[in-house]
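= Paired protein data =
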Amino acid sequence: MGIERNVAAASGAVFLVGLGEELWKKFLPKYLESLGASVAAVGLFGTAEDFFDAVYQYPGGWLADHWGRRRAFLIFLTAAVAGYLIYLSSPTWPYLFLGLAFVMAWQAMASPAMFATIGDALPRERRAMGFTVQSMLKRIPMVISPLIGGATMGALGLQKGIRTGLLVTIALAAVAAALLSTLRLPTAARNVVSMSGVWDSFHPTLKRLLASDIVIRTCEGMADIFVVLYVTNVGGITIPKYGVLVAIQLMTAILIYVPSAKIAARVGRKPFVIATFFCFALYPITVILARSFGGLVLAFIVGGLREIGEPSRKAMIVDFAEQQFRARNVGLYYLIRNLSITPASAIGGLLWRVRPEIPFVIAGLFGVAGTLLFAIFVKEQHPG
């Protein structure tokens, strides 16, 4: 079965931008540290990332519904390039916060447009596979680029290696813009509705999914940004070896995407979302329990298994979104979710100061709670 051309173009742009961003993105906490930032400041950067990821979602969905998917994508990508230039020229770590405000336009604002593109272009029965293709193209760079980025930093030094990666990202963004220009989707009717009206349109199942997702992403936000610091500073693993671990994690995710999507089409989406949430709970615990590089390999495989039900979860969101303002439904979902988890990284930074393992343990407990919340209260059903 061929890939629908609009889905292919948007996913291809995600692939190209990711190919550049992943050269340096996983190493940003170390970059902040090299520019003089404290662990608390690194935690604050993670919180700022979550904040922008939250507040940009609904405006991104609104613009995608009102301006059309193509125009919205191009504007978001242009803003991200401005952020890369700020990262590139930053003399001290506070400038990275300014750059982040622009960089997040692509990651956060473009997300509802991507969901809506798949929802517009594909029927319900093909959406999970559509998200699988998009997720694979998004994550293949996460396997390749950290290896290249880590090796580049090993050869050139951390700061010069990251800045080299930023130059590559800007070049790839130009190619992605050309690809996005080929999108041909009709602009949605401009339904004038308030944010509260969009919330009222949420299916009850979507609201329950959102509640469980908030708890799970609190687990992620509290620990994930500190994984590179824990592995390198506490575990003594080198930056190039950390790049290998990231590649293992993402390769695991890529290998499970297609089989899980095909099985989910037969048995339903819910079991795979439960498996995803359980792995979110398990990952931070396995990181701190690892006592060798081999142990970390197992931990990062668990981290990769967090993606086993992500296409199914995304398809559930689109399934239960109202078609006439689909991008706004997705945008409001992620606005509420990401705004709710904004304090998680900052809290994790404070807990780290007590003992580095503590944010990972607390994160694991949140993960268990979120898994139970979804398993008990979210019933998979077709929207009426």
Notes: The mean pLDDT is 89. Residues 146 and 255 are 18 Å apart (CA to CA). The chain has 18 helices and no strands. The first helix runs from residue 5 to 21.
